[in-house]
Amino acid sequence: MPPWLASSWQLIIEGLDSKASPHAWCIVHPPGVPASELSDHLVRVLLCQDPVNEEPCGDCVSCRMRDTHPDVLRLEPEGAAGMIKVDAVRDAIEVAYTTASMGGRRVVLVRPADCLNQASSNALLKIVEEPPSGTVFVFQTALPGKLLPTLVSRLRMVKVPMPSAELFAKTVQSLGITAQQVQLASALLAEPLAPQTDPDRFALANDVFQALVRIRGGADAQMAVKSFSKADALVASTVMERVCEHLIRAHYDRVDNAVTDILKAPYPAVPLLFQFKERIAEVKKQAQAGIAVNAGLALGSLFAAWGFIWTRVQV
Ligand SMILES: [Zn+2]
């Protein structure tokens, strides 16, 4: 488990140890700080047939099943709207009132819980208040303010703290990432936390930026896009948007930043950058909504457009 989750796990252990062990938990974490390992670990210990000091034994039938355990009901966002649907909630409730297939506990994992709409939240109220024996709820969210207050009042809240700067530095160092790379990634991603706490996202942001640098140097845009999958569209569009913003700013304040240090002036004209930014915003919106059908193609056209605006730069 990442070090920034350790203190929250201690809180959970205390709760599990207490006489009235909660039957509904809610893990609340700062946006951009990954916390799913904490809720996964909690689910595992709840289902473990022989926990050792409130830790999953790792050896029983339940522990070995990990993600395929039949007694974990997952409520996750679905469809273009990205909400947890009331029908899915009702189905889960129906199952929760039957006997668990492994004879032990049953866990309902609601993640991210801020994707519950009014109807699905209301459907959960009663069962969360008085769950059938052996059923435990685990909610996880970065946006607790979006949860129905009447639902929140029934949950045992466990906060994940913002990782400290020292912890960042340590994690980053252990991953072999340099301070300069961190600075660049913070400039490329909207949330400065992401590069330190989510190395995959950081690496991807860096790859996208390197592709932009290569295309700016004359490399073929279509070749560059081949190394990215559709799933990367959100990170890629975020990075392009940020790069654009840095270049637009550089036209006005002429102060170098992590991006303009590498992409040297002269830059494309401001109107061209704004046009490009609008195209990026469209792709980003699609990617955010999970409409991934044409994301690969859209990404290709963005890289091509990026190549094009640099051909218009007057040296
Ligand atoms: Zn076990």
Keywords:
315 residues; alpha/beta; Rossmann fold; 2 domains; 5-stranded parallel sheet; binds zinc ion
Per-chain topology:
Blueprint: H1 6-17, E1 24-28, H2 36-47, H3 61-65, E2 72-75, H4 86-96, E3 106-110, H5 118-129, E4 135-141, H6 149-152, E5 156-159, H7 165-174, H8 179-188, H9 194-197, H10 199-216, H11 221-225, H12 233-253, H13 270-288, H14 295-311
Parallel strand pairs: 1-4, 1-5, 2-3, 3-4
Helix pairs in contact: 4-5, 8-10, 10-12, 12-13, 13-14
Bound molecules: zinc ion.
Zinc ion (ZN) is lined by residues 48-50, 56-57, 59-60, 62-63.
Would you write up a description of this structure?
With 315 residues, this protein is α/β, with parallel strands linked by helices. It has two domains: 3-159, Rossmann fold, CATH 3.40.50.300; 165-311, no CATH class. The chain contains 14 helices and five strands. The chain has helices spanning 6-17, 36-47, 61-65, 86-96, 118-129, 149-152, 165-174, 179-188, 194-197, 199-216, 221-225, 233-253, 270-288, 295-311, and strands at 24-28, 72-75, 106-110, 135-141, 156-159. Strands 2-3-4-1-5 form a five-stranded parallel beta sheet, sandwiched between helices. Strand 2, helix 4 (86-96) and strand 3 (106-110) form a beta-alpha-beta unit. Helix 4 packs parallel to helix 5, helix 8 (179-188) crosses helix 10 and helix 10 (199-216) crosses helix 12. It is elongated, with a radius of gyration of 23 Å. The site of zinc ion (ZN) has 9 residues, from helix 3.
